[in-house]
Amino acid sequence: SFIEGHKEGLVIEYHENGVIKEEGVFKDGNKEGIYKKYYDNGKLEFEGNFEEGKENGLIKIYYDNGQIQYEATLKEGKVNGVLKMYFENGNILSETMYVNDKKEGLSKKYDEEGNLFLGTNYKDDKKVGESIYY
């Protein structure tokens, strides 16, 4: 439903083909609580928790084949913790630690078969030293 032009309460929207497009609770026009978005094939595209419209907690984004593409923990919309990205085949692509949306510590990158091939250290979002190739 809408109140004064803003989404309010439980909102469920549909793709033209009748499949659910998004569902979640809105308060004062902002997402609140668990929010989900779907591809038109019915597979989950995004799921995450929101507080006052900002991402808070574990966020997951999926490829349209259902495989996870991205997962991270956010606090007030900023990445805090390990951000993991995946290839469409499900293998890990990268793992990077973040503190308040800035890269911190060792970032690891993998090839499509899941083999570690690159490591880069970061401090306050800036590269430290040379990258290490494995």
Task: Summarize the entry for a quick read.
This protein is mostly beta strands and 134 residues long. It has no helices and 16 strands. The strands form two sheets. Strands 3, 4, 5, 6, 7, 8, 9, 10, 11, 12, 13, 14, 15 and 16 form a 14-stranded antiparallel beta sheet that branches. Strands 1-2 form a two-stranded antiparallel sheet.
Topology:
Elements: E1 2-3, E2 6-7, E3 9-14, E4 20-27, E5 30-38, E6 44-51, E7 54-55, E8 57-62, E9 68-75, E10 78-79, E11 81-86, E12 92-99, E13 102-103, E14 105-110, E15 116-123, E16 126-133
Protein name: MORN repeat variant
What does this structure look like?
The protein has 134 residues and is an all-beta fold. It folds into two domains: 1-63, Histone H3 K4-specific methyltransferase SET7/9 N-terminal domain (Single Sheet), CATH 2.20.110.10; 67-133. Helix content is 0%, strand content 68%. The protein contains no helices and 16 strands. The N and C termini lie far apart (54 Å). The relative contact order is 0.09.
Uncertain spans: none
Shape: flat
SS-based structural class? mainly beta
Number of helices: 0
* Oligomer description: single chain
Annotation keywords:
2 domains; flat; 0% helix; MORN repeat variant; 16 strands; 134 residues; Histone H3 K4-specific methyltransferase SET7/9 N-terminal domain; mainly beta; two-stranded antiparallel sheet; 14-stranded antiparallel beta sheet; MORN_2
